[in-house]
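Below is a complete specimen:
___
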Amino acid sequence: MPSIFNTLPGLEVPVGSITSSLDEMWSAGTGLKDGAALEADDAKAIQVNVVLHLGLHTTPEDALVQFQTVLEFSKRYPCRVVILCPLEGDDGPTELHAKIYGECHLGKTKQDKRCVEFVILSYPRPAWKHLENQASICLSADLPMYYWAHRFRSTQRLAEYHYLLGRAKRLLMDSAVVPEDALTYPWPRPETVRDLTCARLLPARQALGQFLSRYSVIDLGDGLKEVVLAHDPAVTAEARVLLGWVRDRLGQCGVPGDYCRLEALPPGGTVSFDLRFKYAGPKNFRWTAELATGHASFSADFGSGRTDLASSISLLPPTTALSEAMFF
């Protein structure tokens, strides 16, 4: 199986000449889309630094998907991207390898250019301290940095990257593909941690919040016995995060959330989420959603008459979820 470093596009260059090689790449027009020439002022278009750390559970195919996600993200937010590609094993040489890659995309006019430049670093485990020094050189010092840790194997080992964790404006991870303790780990700056699973759920959270906001806290909490979220096994991580969000919002309304629970639906069905509030009395609330069809529905009766409402449902696409997690 090829390494993720070899799979990703780019021109391999000596580690010590990354900066000069980037300058040569831009001046030669290498990688520019639509024949767009790079002017001197275009370098100022870069707005953020992104460090994408591809953990040891990342496959070459997955690495290409995440590369494309950042590339699409750059069309809206021009950025400098450093991709870190670790190698298996704690013994052996400490040599780093590097690639560079760049693209510019034309907007509505020739003056509207969106540029992205990648530095891809491959490193064995013994070289991780040198890696942070090299990554710091590759980043633009006057721009914010966002650190995206993807499919890492060990939370404790990731915690050893002090420079990246300390400088990052946001630490991004996807609870669907990282260790279970990743979101509860005592990170140096826990307020910076953002979950991409939660970001993907923004449309669902907005729909639920908007529907339930029409009812009073008393209506929602009085007589509530149980909150059950049944879910398709394919969206177990999303269901866990969504139920946590519901529990938190009920708690903010003074409703204890210790009776919230998950329940798996049989595989192969059409329903992705089935959320029910069960009451000691005639009141009821239910929300069902089918991600495959994009259809969702609300059914509720809090004592003032039954309400049925059809709506839509989707998860944010990866590029939009990345933006949501970074900036909001």
